């Protein structure tokens, strides 16, 4: 998986949620393009996601990974307002 920071045309979305009744805090959304390279072995980001997810749970946030299709992955990270201070 190529990370968004490796490509100039990939964007990271960050929103500060103030008026949402269910969520107040920082929401980060990252869309990654998945590239299959038959000549190189690509490392899995699975363990890193589990570690980050565990840390976010400790601080009351969450991380989700969703595969939108065979070529696109979507990561969402949320940090609640009451834990940001």
What can you see in these coordinates?
The protein has a domain of 30 residues. The protein is built from 1 helix and 4 strands; from the N terminus they run ββαββ. A 4-stranded antiparallel β-sheet has the order 1-2-4-3. The longest helix has 13 residues. The protein starts with 11 loop residues before the first strand and ends in a 5-residue tail after the last strand. The N terminus is likely disordered.
How much of the sequence lies in strands comes to 35-45%
Helix-strand string: EEHEE
Strand order of the largest sheet: 1-2-4-3
Q: Which structural class fits the helix and strand makeup?
A: alpha+beta
Number of helices: 1
Helical residues, percent: 10-25%
Rg measurement, Å? 15 Å
For the residues shown, what is the average pLDDT?
Answer: 71
Short descriptors:
GHKL domain protein, single chain, alpha+beta, 4-stranded antiparallel sheet, 38% strand, 85 residues
How do you describe this structure in short?
It comes from Leptospira interrogans serovar Pyrogenes str. L0374. This protein has one helix spanning 46-58; strands at residues 12-17, 25-33, 62-69, 72-80.
What is the topology?
Blueprint: E1 12-17, E2 25-33, H1 46-58, E3 62-69, E4 72-80
Antiparallel strand pairs: 1-2, 2-4, 3-4
Protein name: GHKL domain protein
Organism: Leptospira interrogans serovar Pyrogenes str. L0374
